[in-house]
Design goal:
31% of the residues lie in helices and 26% in strands. With 257 residues, the chain is an alpha/beta fold. It folds into 2 domains: 141 residues, NAD(P)-binding Rossmann-like Domain (Rossmann fold, 3-Layer(aba) Sandwich); 106 residues, Dihydrodipicolinate Reductase, domain 2 (2-Layer Sandwich). The strands form 2 sheets. An 8-stranded mixed β-sheet has the order 3-4-2-1-5-6-7-13, sandwiched between helices. Strand 9 and strand 10 form a beta hairpin. The protein is elongated. It starts with a strand and ends in a 6-residue tail after the last strand.
Length: 257
C-alpha cells in the first residue's frame, strides 16, 4: 500500500486527487494539507491540516501530490526534498531554471520527483503528435485556452509542447515577413524555435490547447479539450505508482506512457 499525502486538498484539483486516492486499492490517503478548510474531514482518519512540514513529519507519507499555487510550488518542492518525501507535482508555473535546480537536488538527495505540466492522457498524446508533426512542418503556433482563474501564462502544457516541438525543429516561423506589432503582445509570446504562444483566459473554458501547423496550401490542427477535472486522475495515479517503483526525477508524463 502506497501512503499518499495531498497538498492543496481543498482546491478543485486537490479534491479530485483525494477522491482518486481513496478509490484506488493500492493507495492509502494518510494526510491532506491546505490553508483553507483546516479541520475538515476528507476521510475517516484524515482531516485537512494547514502546516505542510508538520503534516509530513507526523503522517509520513511515501509520496505527496501537489496541486497548489505557482507562487509557492518551488518552495513546496524543496520542503519535500529536504524531508526525503517523493512528490508528484501538478502545479504549473515553475521557471526553467527552477526545474533544473529541482532535478539536480532530486538526484543529489536520491529522492524521486515527478513533474508533469499535464496529467491528461489525451493532452500528452496531443503534445507528442505535435512533436512528430514538427519534423515535417516549418511553421507552427500554439493557442491555449483556460478559465480566468488560472494565474500563470502561458500554461505549463504550452511550454512543454513548445519544448518538444523545438527539440526536432530549430525554426517554426520559417519565411515569415518582418513584423511590427501596433499593439504590443498581439503576436503572442515567442518560445524556443520562434514558436508563438497565445494564451486565452475567460470563463467557460477549463483547459484546451490547439497547435496549428501551416505549409503552402494546407493547415494541420491538433487540439485537445479537457471538460472535466476527472480526466487528469488516471495520469496522476499512473505517476504515483511509477514514482513508487522508480526513485528518480521525471519531467513529463510522456516519459512513462
Amino acid at each position: 500500500m502506497i501512503k499518499v499525502g495531498v497538498i492543496g486538498a481543498a482546491g478543485k484539483m486537490g479534491k479530485e486527487v483525494v477522491n482518486a486516492v481513496l478509490n484506488d486499492k493500492d493507495l492509502e490517503l494518510v494526510c491532506a494539507v491546505d490553508k483553507f478548510e483546516a479541520g475538515k474531514k476528507v476521510a475517516d482518519n484524515v482531516e485537512i491540516e494547514e502546516d505542510i512540514e508538520a503534516a509530513l513529519k507526523s503522517k509520513k507519507p511515501d509520496i505527496v501530490v501537489d496541486f497548489t499555487q505557482p507562487s509557492t510550488i518551488y518552495k513546496n518542492i524543496n520542503i519535500y526534498l529536504d524531508l526525503n518525501v517523493k512528490s508528484v507535482i501538478g502545479t504549473t508555473g515553475l521557471k526553467k531554471e527552477e526545474i533544473e535546480n529541482i532535478k539536480k537536488k532530486s538526484e543529489e538527495k536520491n529522492v524521486g520527483c515527478f513533474i508533469a505540466p499535464n496529467f491528461t492522457i489525451g493532452a500528452v498524446l496531443m503534445m507528442m503528435f505535435a512533436q512528430t508533426a514538427s519534423k515535417y512542418f516549418n511553421n507552427a503556433e500554439i493557442l491555449e485556452f483556460h478559465h480566468n482563474q488560472k494565474k500563470d501564462a502561458p500554461s505549463g502544457t504550452a511550454i512543454k509542447t513548445a519544448e518538444l516541438m523545438a527539440s526536432v525543429n530549430e525554426n517554426l516561423s520559417n519565411g515569415n515577413c518582418e513584423e511590427q506589432e501596433t499593439i504590443k503582445g498581439s503576436r503572442g509570446g515567442c518560445a524556443e524555435s520562434n514558436i508563438r504562444i497565445h494564451s486565452i483566459r475567460m470563463p467557460g473554458f477549463m483547459a484546451s490547447q490547439e497547435v496549428i501547423f501551416g505549409a503552402a496550401g494546407q493547415i494541420l490542427k491538433i487540439r485537445h479539450d479537457s471538460v472535466d477535472r476527472k480526466c487528469y486522475m488516471s495520469g496522476v495515479i499512473l505517476a504515483l505508482k511509477y514514482l513508487n517503483d522508480n526513485n528518480k526525477f521525471t519531467y513529463g508524463l510522456e516519459n512513462i506512457l
